[in-house]
Amino acid sequence: MKSKAMMPVKKITPVLLADRVEPCIDFWGKLGFEKTMDVPAGDHLAFAVVKKDSIELMYQTYASVEQEPGGPKNFARGPTFLYVEVDNLEETKRAVAGAKIAMQERTTFYGSKEFGVEDPAGHLVTFAQFGG
């Protein structure tokens, strides 16, 4: 079997869809993320990027996606699942206090303590701490 040349990938950034972008920016801001870019749409944002160190997330409104020429139409709405490894689970729990709990804290067979919340757009975010 012939090996194919690998195209180098520089970065992958999830684009999460939301009814409103602003509450999502606030949610990630509690975890140290900063908004690095946004695209206004009237009295709200159609799109925004939040970033912390080398981690980047984009949020875009459903309405703006549906209005894009040639963009997807009538796609299924549903949550995205994010798995986020953190250094300090207790500190993370305090930072996201008030978010809707999606999964109670648990210890897994693969060695992590985890809990999950919904972000303001309804996406499920599991935070995990490995070791001590």
Blueprint of the fold:
Layout: E1 15-18, H1 22-29, E2 34-41, E3 44-52, E4 55-61, H2 62-67, E5 81-85, H3 89-95, E6 101-107, E7 112-118, E8 124-130
Parallel strand pairs: 1-4, 5-8
Antiparallel strand pairs: 2-3, 3-4, 6-7, 7-8
CATH topology term: 2,3-Dihydroxybiphenyl 1,2-Dioxygenase, domain 1
The number of strands is 8
Q: Report helical residue fraction.
A: 10-25%
Radius of gyration: 17 Å
Quote the beta fraction: 35-45%
Q: What is the CATH superfamily label?
A: 2,3-Dihydroxybiphenyl 1,2-Dioxygenase, domain 1
N-to-C SSE string, H for helix and E for strand? EHEEEHEHEEE
Average pLDDT for all residues: 93
For the record, give the distance between the C-alpha atoms at the N and C termini, rounded to a whole number.
45 Å
State the CATH class. Alpha Beta
Largest beta-sheet details: 4 strands, mixed
CATH architecture label name: Roll
- Apparent shape: globular
Task: Describe the strand arrangement of the main beta sheet, using strand numbers.
Answer: 1-4-3-2
Number of helices: 3
State the secondary-structure class: alpha/beta
Poorly predicted regions = none
